[in-house]
Each structure stands twice: as structure tokens, then as C-alpha cells.
Write a structure and sequence with these properties.
Elements (H helix, E strand, L loop, with lengths): L1 E2 L13 E2 L1 E2 L2 E7 L5 E9 L5 E2 L7 E4 L5 E4 L1 E2 L1 H11 L2
Bound molecules: zinc ion.
The site of zinc ion has 7 residues, from loops.
Length: 88
């Protein structure tokens, strides 16, 4: 994948990573009356992990110093790999 601006606009370092969300199933405990409370553990759903995007589809990158900026993300490299796999 590629980013239109992989370098931090404030300090110039390359991005440490892209901000993503991961859904989790928070376990519940029910009493005899049907009232629920949190059991205290969460099952992380790794298959649902995805980048947080703004309304224009840009992702949020973060540098090692904690600065954040928005960037366009393209999956060009992945697409080329996928095409090669389909070629006989
Ligand atoms: Zn920075």
C-alpha cells in the first residue's frame, strides 16, 4: 500500500502506523430478573479490524512522536500482486 503523505508534516518522520478500530464482544452477566452487567472481559474480533476514515476516505497516520495527520491510502501494490496471482 502507499500513502500520499507518509511523512509527518510537523517533524518529517515516517508514520509509525495507521489508526484503526477493532470491534470487541464485551461479555455480559445476567441476574435472575434479566438485568445485565459487564462481566469484565472482552473477546477481540481481529477479523473486523479496519482503518478509521474521514468523510473523504482518508486514513489517520501517527508518527513516533504522536503527531497525527490525514492521508490518502491506496492499495496499488496489493492490486498488482492480485493480478499476478490470477495470471496463468
Ligand atoms: Zn511527527
Amino acid at each position: 500500500m502507499r500513502f500520499d503523505s507518509p511523512q509527518c508534516p510537523q517533524c518529517g518522520q515516517l508514520a509509525k502506523g495507521v489508526l484503526e478500530t477493532i470491534p470487541g464482544l464485551a461479555r455480559l452477566l445476567f441476574d435472575e430478573d434479566g438485568n445485565a452487567e459487564y462481566a469484565g472481559s472482552t473477546d477481540v474480533c481481529w477479523d473486523g479490524q479496519e482503518a478509521i476514515r474521514d468523510e473523504q476516505g482518508r486514513v489517520r497516520l501517527i508518527c513516533p512522536d504522536g503527531h497525527e495527520w490525514l492521508a490518502e491510502m491506496s492499495r496499488e501494490a496489493d492490486d498488482v500482486t492480485a493480478q499476478r496471482r490470477q495470471d496463468p
